[in-house]
Amino acid sequence: METYNQTSTDFILLGLFPPSRFGTFLFILIVLIFLIALFGNLFMILLIFLDTHLHTPMYFLLSQLSFIDLNYISTIVPKMACNFLLGNKSISFIGCGMQSFFFMTLAGTEALLLTSMAYDRYVAICFPLHYSIRISRRVCVLMIIGSWMTGCINSCAHTIYAFHIPYCKSRAINHFFCDVPAMLTLACIDTWIYEYTVFVSAIFFLLLPFIGIACSYGRVLFAVYHMQSAEGRKKAYSTCSTHLTVVTFYYMPFAYTYLRPRSLRTPTEDKILAVFYTILTPVLNPIIYSLRNKEVMGALRRLTKRICSVKM
């Protein structure tokens, strides 16, 4: 049985990988997923930047999503991998606070950004003649800034409170990153009031955006159903199904984790669900948006031709 120094101010991350061959296999798999997510999101950002055909509000929002996912997975996986390789599970108090802050900032920003992307598709399909007015460059920039600012303010509030709670129990966090709900179990005071604020934040950042996205896509699917053009219907269905896939993978595990009371949660279940929104979603987003998007594939072909012509 492992023993930890309880007099230290450092926290201990018990991690995701069990000390066995299966743990080694899982570690290798996670590192490969991380590399795919890293290069996939970098590729999407560069492709959107280099191809003028993708300089539209939809792809500007998509480039922001890739930027968030790039930082999102980089906040968690490198530290988790280092801990496994070095056999040192500790993380400093400041390091834990920074990881928690960046995680909550990026998570909240992505939740709101996905809502903005749903609104963009709603306006494009239901009000195509008004699209350039309702989703102008200025509106697009304001949606992005608003998402970042709201996510950052929410994260600041939670991080400051969580790291001022006295921790007098074990410093071992039964998770693979500094997740605030997992840390609350180590507190030596009653945290029910703070847990209530976490619940309220989850409603604001997860439940309400998900309801808004579901309603907007309900209107979109209704409009698509009445379209005269078969090609237009096919393109709209493809765009909507792509975005709904991303939304489902992100919101559902997140909401299921944070909207349940502590008494109904288990550390193992929380860690499995966290894999979806911290590791799998960042790698799936560039794959889904590239393979299922004709415009992105067209941009890739144009970029390939440009590179080949330069070499020749």
Automatic annotation (TrEMBL):
<dbReference type="Pfam" id="PF13853">
    <property type="entry name" value="7tm_4"/>
</dbReference>
<feature type="transmembrane region" description="Helical">
    <location>
        <begin position="139"/>
        <end position="164"/>
    </location>
</feature>
<keyword id="KW-1003">Cell membrane</keyword>
<dbReference type="GO" id="GO:0004930">
    <property type="term" value="F:G protein-coupled receptor activity"/>
</dbReference>
<keyword id="KW-0297">G-protein coupled receptor</keyword>
<dbReference type="GO" id="GO:0004984">
    <property type="term" value="F:olfactory receptor activity"/>
</dbReference>
<dbReference type="InterPro" id="IPR000276">
    <property type="entry name" value="GPCR_Rhodpsn"/>
</dbReference>
<dbReference type="InterPro" id="IPR000725">
    <property type="entry name" value="Olfact_rcpt"/>
</dbReference>
<feature type="transmembrane region" description="Helical">
    <location>
        <begin position="236"/>
        <end position="252"/>
    </location>
</feature>
<keyword id="KW-0552">Olfaction</keyword>
<keyword id="KW-0675">Receptor</keyword>
<feature type="transmembrane region" description="Helical">
    <location>
        <begin position="200"/>
        <end position="224"/>
    </location>
</feature>
<feature type="transmembrane region" description="Helical">
    <location>
        <begin position="272"/>
        <end position="291"/>
    </location>
</feature>
<keyword id="KW-0812">Transmembrane</keyword>
<feature type="domain" description="G-protein coupled receptors family 1 profile">
    <location>
        <begin position="40"/>
        <end position="289"/>
    </location>
</feature>
<keyword id="KW-0472">Membrane</keyword>
<keyword id="KW-0807">Transducer</keyword>
<dbReference type="InterPro" id="IPR017452">
    <property type="entry name" value="GPCR_Rhodpsn_7TM"/>
</dbReference>
<keyword id="KW-0716">Sensory transduction</keyword>
<dbReference type="GO" id="GO:0005886">
    <property type="term" value="C:plasma membrane"/>
</dbReference>
<keyword id="KW-1133">Transmembrane helix</keyword>
<feature type="transmembrane region" description="Helical">
    <location>
        <begin position="25"/>
        <end position="50"/>
    </location>
</feature>
<feature type="transmembrane region" description="Helical">
    <location>
        <begin position="100"/>
        <end position="119"/>
    </location>
</feature>
<comment type="function">
    <text>Putative odorant or sperm cell receptor.</text>
</comment>
<comment type="similarity">
    <text>Belongs to the G-protein coupled receptor 1 family.</text>
</comment>
<protein>
    <recommendedName>
        <fullName>Olfactory receptor</fullName>
    </recommendedName>
</protein>
